[in-house]
TrEMBL record:
It holds the Pfam family ComA. InterPro entries: Aldolase_TIM (IPR013785), ComA_synth (IPR003830), ComA_synth_sf (IPR036112). This is Phosphosulfolactate synthase. Belongs to the phosphosulfolactate synthase family. It comes from the Bacteria. It comes from Neobacillus novalis.
Length: 255
């Protein structure tokens, strides 16, 4: 029975209000149990870092996510490893064999020139839905705001479905300071050059998630969400936690 007035959430095969989880090796049986209850509030699943390459029964895991209408993809670190070893064509074949339709192009560990990444995206977007990531995993790499804005703009213009803002699973790099503080000025600057619906903000903790919900709205795209936090995040989006308690039903759209 629905009797509360809460922010309206996007639903179904949504393109905004996305919850993108990170899977760092959840066993198949445990994953199935999680998805039975919470699969309807998960949209994308990243098989974290390069772990897909050593995940037992990875094809079964990919198929399980797809069974619940969740889009699986491999973490950008695996792409970077293949790029570094000149194995990108083999990586493409690997993804095709797994039935994965999404690919992440990142430079969180390697410094791949932007123009080269744009060329790779131009090549891959014929066969995949491409997600690109902006920002470094190195907390000491202080990328100017102007570069963030330019990369986001050009990556979307190149045909990426979404751009991910790097935050790591610890929330201590990229769009975050070393101590986990959000670079709020950077976030506002990025929203000047890109539609919030096209950005997935990595927000690994409830504290980070609540910031984006309050700043952008309940239907903000959030990534690097831990599987065990999925229900808590949905409650936050619906104004069912103290920090988001006063969200209005009218705030269903991104600001």
């Amino acid at each position: 029975m629905d009797f509360l007035t809460i922010p309206k959430r996007t639903s179904g095969n949504r393109t905004s209000g996305l919850t993108s989880v990170v899977d760092f090796g959840t066993p198949l049986g445990e994953l199935n149990n999680i998805l039975v209850d919470y699969g309807h509030i998960i949209d994308i699943a990243k098989i974290g870092i390069g772990s897909a390459y050593v995940t037992p029964n990875v094809k079964k895991k990919v198929d399980l996510y797809k069974e619940f209408k969740i889009k699986p993809y491999c973490g950008g670190t695996l792409f970077e490893k293949c790029y570094y070893q000149n194995k990108t064509p083999e990586y493409v074949s690997y993804l095709h064999n797994l039935g994965i339709e999404w690919i992440e192009i990142s430079n969180g560990t390697l410094e791949i020139p932007l123009q080269e990444r744009l060329q790779i995206i131009s090549w891959l977007k014929k066969d995949f839905r491409v997600i690109a990531e902006v920002g470094s995993k190195d907390a000491d790499n202080h990328m100017p705001v102007s570069e963030w804005k330019e990369e986001v703009r050009l990556l979307l213009e190149a045909g990426c479905e979404y751009v991910i803002t790097e935050g790591r699973d610890s929330g201590t790099a990229g769009i975050y300071e070393k101590n986990g503080t959000i670079k709020s000025n950077l976030i506002h600057e990025l929203l000047e050059v890109a539609d919030a619906e096209k950005i997935i903000f990595e927000a690994p903790s409830p504290k980070h998630q609540m910031y984006f919900i309050k700043e952008i709205g309940p239907n903000v795209n959030l990534g690097n969400v831990k599987l065990q936090d999925v229900l808590v995040l949905e409650a936050q989006r619906c104004g069912l936690r103290s920090e988001t308690f006063f969200l209005e039903a009218s705030e269903c759209n991104l600001l």
